[in-house]
Target: PST family polysaccharide transporter
Amino acid sequence: MSFSVKRLLSSSLFQNFVANGFWQLSNLLPPIILVPYLVNTLGGEQYGAFAFLQTLMEYGFLITDYGFLLSATKRVAQASSPAERAKIFANVVFIKLTLVGILALFFFLGFGLIFSQEYSVGTIGFLLLAILGYSLFPMWYFQGIEKFKFISILNALSKLLLMGTILYLVNERDDLTYAVVAYSIAYLFMGGVGFIYALRSFGTPVFKLLSIKEIKLLLKEGGYFFTSSLMPTIYTHLPVVVLKFFTNNLFVGLFSLSLKIVTIAKYTLLAFVNVLYPRICRKATQLSIQELNAYLKKVYTPLWIACLLGCGLLFGLAPFIVHLVDIEKGSINILVFVLRILSAVPILVATHAWFSLPLMAYGHAKLYSYAILYGSIFALLWQGTCVVLWQRNSLLLLYGISIAVPLTEFIIGGAFYAYYRKLKHLLEQKTT
Model:
């Protein structure tokens, strides 16, 4: 074994990649096992009803995260002392818990007015407990201090707990609420353990460090990333909401199932991007744009190639993948077509992440937000047009909305590339 290989294997970046690979493996297994099980146990329509709740859960995760997965990670990574990290921790947690309280009010009011006949109050309560558990887990803090091994192990344990509780509790078509209960148990476990572990690491009562000035600063910094995160979540998951209102739970289930499969590949990539992000933030303060670009090219190219191969396999194996679930024969071809449309999403995300990482590292969060905004506006206009044209043709509406997802990622990638070229030109001018 050469010296360079030994050095690579012993490097903290490589170890973080391994830890994140373990993280992603633990994220991959539950959907692979549970999605076919839930579809087969609950049935296509009930799975669609459950998928709608999962979409709302994702919105809840996004709102309570408020962009801190990027902004607070950067603050923690660049913090000069444990006391500064403790102050960041206390104020971020306070903001997140406040957002959970506000979200609970809106959820109970919204479901009481619109979906009171379909979902019980208990179901919504357990949904909120899952969001609370997610909010308590300080992923942003552990990423900032690069403690990936701990979060990978904890994540794996929570996913095992999730699989065990779902397989134990969900046995009939009417067990939708029990599926939500399983998610709340798993997220409360992960959030509680992670929160206590982080809290005990400080050794001081951190909540004495609450500061209105710090809260305002964190809200301002996180706001750009929240906006840029909100928009893709809206355009990615809005189809589920649109299909819920204009078609039926079966079509919701078919789209959600395809999106779930593609999301597995997408978030596998983004997990590795999250490993790179804190390191790139530090290197941005030490290297020129040319040197940073060379470093990024060196570590990111293998990920991009792997993602491209994965997308090709997903497209080619779509007919075999859909047979993992027990659905009506008439729905199989629909599911294959939608899955193939969405199979381009991961490689498009991989491409625009290459250009967005330097934007965030050099503090150009506004440009990042603008690029996401352009794509989101396009997605909303496209999906709105689909509703106007095909609200009475469920199949065409499903296909039209599915096509919007990769097209939107393409537009976002183009905007990121344009802004990256502009940033590179400005920084090169400063050094000459």
Observations:
- The two ends are 42 Å apart (CA to CA).
- The chain has a mean pLDDT of 83.
- The longest helix spans residues 394-431.
- Residues 224-432 form one domain.
